[in-house]
Automatic annotation (TrEMBL):
The chain crosses the membrane at residues 20-43, 63-82, 103-127, 139-160, 167-188, 223-245. It comes from Candidatus Uhrbacteria bacterium CG_4_9_14_3_um_filter_50_9. It is a multi-pass membrane protein. GO terms for molecular function: ABC-type transporter activity. This is Transport permease protein. Residues 19-248 form the ABC transmembrane type-2 domain. It is found in: Cell membrane; Membrane. Its main location: membrane. Pfam families: ABC2_membrane. One of its GO terms (cellular component) is ATP-binding cassette (ABC) transporter complex. Coiled coil: none annotated. Keywords: Cell membrane, Membrane, Transmembrane, Transmembrane helix, Transport.
């Protein structure tokens, strides 16, 4: 591991999303503002929710997590696909960069974008809610682990995709539906008891629930199982991505 080489890859990835701020930062901030206004303020005032928790405080962690996921996934998936499409990835593979340095550079760049987007969403939320923290270390744990996880998923899709449209398939048909049924806008107790087990099979439910607990101290799942599962998923996906880079899957064509 050479920190100078890793820094060069990371710097390129960070500069990539900073060059198009409207698409990578301003657009998610506007989207989050609309979610907060519509679901948190307008609809939330008409919902008799938990006795000690305002509805806007309940939904905000999920909105924050949603933008975090989209930011990390979009950065790594589109960046790697673009480098494959323009053949610049072959220059990276022929350079002294190790596979670990390349993958970590993509991950750090995607994580940085996700954190910048999340910081902006949090700043916006302060205008409408307290946006408090019940457990700061746990909050940053979920922010980092989820960003890394979806950066790795983005790299897998960036390797697999043959067309630009395919990059949006996972986000449109899998990630977004899982987010909407993952407890972002509703408590699991609002759902029929017969389908509680189905919600608990949704991995995003544990991400949203974990960051919600870190902010307002309210949880509906086993946080330890969720944290262990997220950590294990990151490790497994990292090993898989490194292996795919080593064998040159869809990289040396």
């Amino acid at each position: 591991m050479n920190m100078i080489r890793l820094g060069a890859v990371t710097k390129r990835e960070v500069q990539r999303f900073l060059r198009i701020p409207v698409q990578t930062m301003i657009s998610p901030w506007i989207s989050a503002t609309l979610y907060i206004l519509v679901f948190g303020v307008i609809i939330g005032e008409r919902i008799d929710f938990l006795e000690s928790i305002d509805y806007i405080d309940f939904v905000f962690p999920g909105i924050l997590m949603m933008q975090l996921i989209f930011g990390a996934y979009g950065q790594s998936a589109f960046s790697l696909f673009f480098h494959r499409w323009t053949k610049t990835i072959t220059e990276m593979l022929a350079s002294p960069l190790s596979y670990t340095e390349i993958v970590l550079g993509y991950i750090i760049g995607a994580t940085t974008r996700a954190i910048v987007v999340s910081a902006g969403v949090y700043a916006i939320a302060v205008l409408f809610t307290d946006a408090t923290f019940a457990n700061v270390p746990l909050f940053f744990f979920y922010i980092l682990v989820v960003a890394i996880l979806f950066a790795l998923i983005g790299l897998l899709i960036g390797l697999w995709a043959e067309k630009m449209e395919q990059l949006n398939m996972l986000q449109t048909f899998i990630i977004t539906p899982l987010i909407y049924v993952g407890g972002v806008f509703n408590s699991i107790d609002m759902l029929p008891e017969k389908i509680h087990w189905l919600v608990k099979l949704n991995p995003i439910f544990y991400m949203v629930d974990g960051i919600r607990y870190s902010m307002i101290g309210y949880s509906e799942s086993n946080l330890l199982y969720g944290a262990i599962g997220l950590g294990a998923a990151c490790l497994i996906l990292f090993v898989i991505v490194i292996h795919l880079f080593k064998i040159g899957w869809k990289l040396r064509s």
